[in-house]
Amino acid sequence: MSQKAKFTDQKFLVTLIFVTSLFMCWGIAITMADVLNKHFQNVLSLTRSQSAFVQFAIFGAYFVMGIPAGLFMKRFGYKNGVLLGLSLFALGSFLFVPAASTASFGFFGVALFIVGCGLSTLETVAHPFIASLGDQRTSDQRINFAQSFNAVGAMLGPQIGSYFLFRNHIAGNKDLGPVTTLYIAIGVVIALIAISFAMVKVPATTDPHAIADEEAVNVDTAPAKKLIDHKHFVWAVISQFFNVAAQAGTWAFFINYGHEKMGFSDVTATSYMTVFMGMMLIGRFAGTFLMRIIAPNKLLAAFALGNIVMCIIVAQGFGWPSFIALLMINFFFSIMFPTIFSLGIKNLGTRTQQASSFISMGVAGGAFFPFLMGKVADSAGVANAYYLPIICYVVILFFGARFYKVKN
């Protein structure tokens, strides 16, 4: 009998801590963008569909940067890939200073796009990087561990954004100074992380999916097939596209829903957004436990069905019942990204890294969907906009129920 695999080795511990912190960093950045969305509505007098450009800039960068980041990682290694991502993240943050001085929403869009390129690079590199920091049989455990810190970051983002942008905001005030202060602070912190990580000596790592032995977690069972011929992989890319589309739209207008349908102030609505992100953390723990007794694809389908029901309730504008349903959307959303990801790379062996880049590009769904929801929100009210994510969850439901199957 083989010895039980360790979570990681002592030599990887410092690197593991640094890479895990990256998951929290992009969790903070993504949810802070949702607070920024509402702040730009206030100070730049934007409509909801116009402010959705915040999400377009960030998630659009994922589409543009996904493959280049993967190629850079393959050519220059994990550590340099992380340093590139952190550098772009910091650069985009510092560009908020000239953007604020010109009060140009277009300039802000450029800065956000560069931030998004940094986040895309970090996310593309960090998943396989953390998987490589130890025994291949425990790579999934390390990824799930790091993802829990991503959820913590998602909870911190709204609170940090609210403190800087909403705490002392007076209605009608067009001052962009708080945005500048916030993103200078972010840029400095990210730059310090980059400098610190540059000094870390990363031990030699092994691709956990490149070793084809009897205990490997991901062995290619059909090496003669082209990647695109693996239907479960293709459907995973499609499902991830719609998954992140629903996520981006739902998160982007959460504060608007609290303000319009519940009568909350921006500060109060943002505080509930922290609860909203907390539901995602609870959902990940619950999902991890439930996957011991329920097949991941079946749980994915069940959670997708749960979100279809929640979206219908949210769209009715029933007050607290609808708002609780809105909070529950993030509970059911919790397992979708990692589960779609893991089902999509199943039995791809050494092509896992390439497949990961394409599935990560599915994040581009978040670039366009907030525009659609914003258009509906502007014309028919924010509650009716929540009918749209139902389309996304129907696709995910079919993937979990049928199209996840690996065919040799």
Automatic annotation (TrEMBL):
* Transmembrane intervals: 12-33, 53-73, 80-97, 103-122, 143-166, 181-200, 233-257, 269-287, 299-318, 324-343, 355-373, 385-404
State the SUPFAM superfamilies in the record.
Answer: MFS general substrate transporter (SSF103473)
Main localization category: membrane
Keyword Membrane present in the record's keywords: the answer is: yes
What's a Pfam family this protein contains?
MFS_1
Q: Quote the PROSITE patterns the UniProt record gives.
A: MFS (PS50850)
Q: Which UniProt keywords apply?
A: Cell membrane, Membrane, Transmembrane, Transmembrane helix
Q: What is this protein called?
A: L-fucose:H+ symporter permease
Cellular compartment(s): Cell inner membrane
Tell me which residues make up the Major facilitator superfamily (MFS) profile domain: 13-408
Task: State the organism of origin.
Answer: Pedobacter helvus
In its keyword annotation, does this UniProt entry include Cell membrane?
A: yes
Checking NCBIfam families in the record gives: fucP
Instruction: Identify the coding gene.
Output: fucP
UniProt topology in membrane: Multi-pass membrane protein
